[in-house]
Structure formats: C-alpha cells, structure tokens
Amino acid sequence: MHSIVVTNKPKDWDFQIPDVEVISAKAYLTDQKYSEMRNVRVYNLCQSYRYQGMGYYVSLLAEARGHRSFPNITTMQDLKSLSIVRIISDELDKIIQSNLARLRSSTFELNIYFGQSVTKLHKTLSRQLYNLFPAPLLHVTFLWNKDQNKWLIQSILPLPLNQVPLAHLPPLFEFSRQYFVRKRIRSKSHSKLIYDLAILTNADEKSPPSDKKALDKFLEAAEDVGLRARIISKNDYSRIPEFDALFIRETTAVNHHTYRFARRATAENLIVIDDPISIVKCANKVYMAERLKNANIATPKTMIVHKKNKDELIKVLGFPCVLKQPDGSFSTGVSKVTDAESLDKELNRLLNQSDLIIAQEFVPTEYDWRIGILNKKPLYACKYYMAKNHWQIAHWHGNERRDGEVETVPIDQVPEKILKNAIRAASLIGDGLYGVDLKYTTAQQTVVIEINDNPSIEYSYEDSLLKDDLYAQIMSCMFQRIKRKKDGIVN
Question: Which of 251, 252, 395, 253 minimizes the C-alpha distance to 334?
Fold first, then answer.
C-alpha cells in the first residue's frame, strides 16, 4: 500500500522516510494522478480540519477515492464533539488521575505523535487517547476541576505540524519512522494477499468463543482465500481503518469495547461479523422474546416480567420455571426456581438490575440443538448435552465452567423442523454468523430458545465433521463480502 503524507507546506515535514511520499494538500486535491491511484493510505497533517477547509477535503476526497485516510471524517467530527470528549474523559478517568496525580498546576497539555509521547510517564495515556481518536498528531488539554477534585479533559485537537515544538521534532521523526516501518513490513509480507482482516480476541477471556487452535485455523483459512488476517485486541481500536473487515472472536456485549469496535468498523465501511445491530438484538433476551413472538416462531411459554406483574408469574408458568437476566450469556444470568421462596428472592435480585426480565417454562431435554447459520444458510449442527447432574449445558462454579458433551451432526441428518426454525429465527437478526439454540420436546415440538451472535467455534467440537472447511467457508464469506463492497455491489 502506497503511503502519502499530505500537509499544507511539505517543507514543514523535513523527514526522509523510505516509501513515504510527501505532497501538498493542493496537489492531492487537484492533481489527477492522485485521484486515479489505488491502494493508498493518506496521512492528513494539514493545519486545520475545520468543516469544508482544505484538511477536511483531503480526508473527505480520500474516502471518496477509496483511499484510507488518517484521520478520517468520523474522527474529525469526534474531535469537535464536546459530549464525546466528556465520555472519553470518563472512560479513561482512572489512568488520567494516575498519570497526572503529581502535577501541581491547574492545566496540563499533552502532545501525542503517532500514538506516542515524548514522556515515558504518559506513554499508556497517550496510546489510549490515540486509540480513541486516531489522528497522526494530537494536542490534549487537561484542566483540574476543584469541585470534582480531579483532572478532566478540556479538549482534544489536531496538532498542526508547524506548531510542534522544536525540541519535539527529533522524537516526532523517530515515532513516525517506527510507525511507517511497521506499516511497510506488514504490507510487504504475504504480498499475494488481497484484503486485510482483523480478528478481535481477548487472550485473558476464560471462555472465549474460539480457542487458540481454532483461531490458528481461521488464520490459515484466511490466507488460503486471499485475506491477510491479524489478531488484534481491545488496545488496537485506532487500527480499525487499516483493515477491510472485522471478525469478532471475543464474547460481545453492548456496554463493552466489542460493541464499540463493531460500531467503529461499520462507520469505517468495513465488513463486520458480528455487526453492531446483531450484537444489540442478540444481547437482549427481552427483545428476542418479543421478536420471536411477533414472527410466530415457537418458544417455551414466555413471560416478560416487571415489578407490577411479577405476582402473576406462578399462575402463568407454574413451577419449575426459568428466570433470565436480559443480557446473560454462556448459561450465566439464568436460574431455575422451584418454589415461591426462591422465586421471590431471584425476582427481587434480577429486577433490581433490569426493569424487565424474562421468565420461561422449564423444558427439560437431554440436549439442546445448536445450528450454526451463516448468510441465512445452515453451516453446522451440534447437540449440546446437559452438563453432568445439571439442567443446563454449562454448569458454573464461581469462575469455573463445566460443559456437557458435544456431538456434531451432519446437516442432512438434522430434523427438518429444527433446520427450518433455526433459519427463520436467525433471519430475524440478519445475515451474519449466528448460533441458534433449539429444543426438540417429548411432544415432538420444536421450540427456539435463543439466537446467539458470536457463536462458539472451537477446535474438535463444532468443526469435528467439516474440519478445515468450516473455517474456510466463514473466511470465504468474509472475502466475498469485501470484494462485493469494493466492486460496488450492494447485494
């Protein structure tokens, strides 16, 4: 990928970095050759990003040309939003207070150059701010708030190149050199690969959706279909614009960085699995219950419970019944109650956390069906057996989880009702990758339990029949979606 640094005055960028072209904003906007170039990354170091100014148009036209702009229009608008700056100040409160605790002045100004600071003490803070506002040069102002007795961010602004202090020019050169060298190494490796895929994971997660062996299989499959795949973490938020697609392999939640990654990637026009809409819909069991009901898809007898109707629950469902917090996952936040005393205790606990919860009749079965759906088509099928001496497929003891057995079943051997209802249910959410949980009752009825975004795909479990082809199908889907988007094909 060709790298171009764009400034108002190229002479202000007095650094020689191999394979990096430095041009004026006027040249980038008016010279036809830059309009026709492909596979370009544009580093916008203009003096101002004001609306409809020269710097604004550099990033705007870069996106129109299919170039990757840094910063992009989304980041430019975020830098102007006081409400977003306040939210970021709250999110980074702990690290801000820790970094600035020894200061005795009432203001502090921090310059950030390609995600780095000239002061080692502020290295982590600089990186976190850069992750949230990915722009080459940033100037951050902090104010001491006497009423709150803490430091707050007053503003985050782009730093014009000509306002970098002379003493900071040598470290700026070194930081930029390190940055571009990393980019060049990444772009030259696997040159036969066409598109870039980020796989978001969390090495510290105790029950991730994919284990290390499965992730390695995804990386191999990605390369086989023409994707340059990279494992990224929550610390790589600023790198999202570098990629063509994002594949989330960390347990998702709405009030969580996985959702922010999905939102940001969608805003950057990446292909995203799991997309933010799917995360929101699948994360809430109240939404799911209402959606399945309105689509006339059979579920266990269900009641949306709140404080005013909780006394009707016994009459409607009887005992035993199952109570679910709206945003639980991996069998967490789900409890079975068998009498009025335990019901009252659990209702009070759950309704103190959420205004609405889900209650369902208890449907005992030896196993749950899990149907993996991709692109509204069945991908794999498993029987998840209940954990030993337990009524769920996963039995939690504190932070320890014990699972039941998993049996993978050929798609053509899955009961037709199971497949049909799984496809219908997943289609209510979208066309991404989902795991639909169903039960086949003793009365030979099929009921949908829930639809999961971010389904488990673990080595020797879900892939035990399809083997490498399971990973290949998912990566091929990502590749085709990227290609269609690049080719301007909507559907």
Answer: 395
Q: Which domains, from first to last, does the chain contain? A: 190-274+476-486 (3.40.50.2300), 301-362 (3.30.1490.20), 363-453 (3.30.470.20)
Longest dimension (CA), the chain: 79
Rg for the chain, CA atoms, rounded: 26
448: number of Cβ within 10 Å: 25
Cα 159 to Cα 52, 166, 241, 329: the distances in Å are 18, 14, 20, 43
Structure token digits, residue 20 = 């990096």
- CA distance linking residue 10 with residue 387, whole number of Å: 66
In angstroms, what CA-CA distances link 57 with 49, 71, 268, 394?
Answer: 8, 12, 17, 53
Query: CA triplet 207, 301, 392: central angle to 5 degrees?
Result: 25
- Kindly report, residue by residue over 221-263, the tens digit of the pLDDT: 999 999 999 999 998 888 898 899 999 999 999 889 999 999 9
Q: Which two tokens stand for residue 479?
A: 């590749």
Q: Which long-range contacts (CB under 8 A, 24 or more apart) does 114-121 make?
A: 114/175, 114/176, 114/178, 114/179, 115/175, 115/179, 115/238, 116/171, 116/175, 118/168, 118/171
Quick: pLDDT tens for 135-160. Answer: 899 999 999 999 999 999 998 988 88
Q: Tell me, what DSSP letter sits at residue 163?
A: G
Question: How far apart are the C-alpha atoms of 173 and 183, rounded to whole Å?
Answer: 15
Mind listing the pLDDT tens digit for each residue in 80-107? 777 777 777 777 888 999 999 888 899 9
Structure tokens at 313: 């629950």
